[in-house]
Amino acid sequence: MLDMLDSQDSPPPISTLNVYKSNAERQALSDALARYGSNMSVAARMLGISRPTFYRLLHKHRLR
């Protein structure tokens, strides 16, 4: 009986942990840019990462 359920009755598939991490990283970068966009050094410092790492992550997520 359980195998006869519609696909609408099943919960949506979950993403992998890497997808969740990537989304969180992208969101943190976006938030830092929105708040400190004119000062990349401060944005990186507030995230607890170096400026070169900040720029690498911006490139990785295609945010700048």
TrEMBL record:
Residues 24-58 form the DNA binding HTH domain. GO terms for molecular function: sequence-specific DNA binding. SUPFAM superfamilies: Homeodomain-like. It comes from the Bacteria. It holds the Pfam family HTH_8. This is DNA binding HTH domain-containing protein. It comes from Pseudomonas turukhanskensis. The lineage of its organism: Bacteria, Pseudomonadati, Pseudomonadota, Gammaproteobacteria, Pseudomonadales.
